[in-house]
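Translate sequence into structure tokens.
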Amino acid sequence: MQNSIKKYSDNLCMKLILAIHFFLSSEDMDHKQSTSPKGFLLFLIFLIGIFAISSSSIFSRLSQQEAPSLIIASVRLFVASIILLPIVAINGRDEFKKINWKVIYLFLLAGLFLSLHFASWISSLEYTSIASSVVLVTTTPLWVALFSPIFLREKNNPKIWIGISIAILGSVVVAGSQTCSFEPGLLMKCTGLRELFSTTSFLGNILALFGAWMIAGYIIIGRKLRNKFSLTVYVFCVYSIAAVFLIIWSLILGYSFIGYSKMIYLWMILLGIIPQLIGHSTFNWALGHIPASFVSIVFMAEPMGTIILAFIFLRENPKLGEILGGILILLGILLVSIANNPGKNQKQ
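Result follows.
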């Protein structure tokens, strides 16, 4: 039975890798021939992308049965980099001629931010619920909107402050859901701030929020690099650098990459294939074909997809406070996305 499962898993991984190679190779040719899918095909692509990204928390939590979070993050990005290597070697060699010391510095910085994002966010799943972690880490658009005027000198619509305020309120509700309960009439009863700050869930929520800040930094730096390189070359460089950072940190802390069960290695490999390559590649592909504001709104369904998968596979039920806070956060992100995107097609 175990041999049959292993054989099926190996075949599944190989098919996924071949599909990724085809998908990304066609993306690199997009500048030659651009056709945007419509109707059911577009819906199917978005559905696959949302559930692929949503599976990240599930595979991470399953891997945490044996492996430390830093090891999981390292393997995730290492697997993604190895799969991308043949595509870059065939299609992206000429692009490396554009690399200079300034570009190297930006790539290193982007890789550092990405490594910190995965290290902190995956670690957050050890301490807090999947629902709290995912809704807090998806606040990234708020921080990008806040930091872009500072680092990119981009102008924001003043209306974003309404969305940011609502999202902050939602974050407070999510954080308080671990020590607060709702009484009849939707009145919140809390045990006190000391209990709130002393819970492991609070640490997990802070780690998830820190992960959102780090991915915001990664996105802002990426805006300076993305227009100079194809999607495949860009993500290969950043994923590889982030993987190196994480591997070094893991070794310094004395973690081992060997000695885990076969299923743990399978979960970590699938983590690098499904959410990292299929999910994030779908998101980046969509930005090249669909208005960015629409893409942002569609992919706000990730927390809902994650909560559904967590209930199905892990039997983890979200608390009422997490649901209400999550709704407020998503509403805030929606308002910021609408205010900051004029609706034109943005190619990234």
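Note: The chain has one domain: 67-340.
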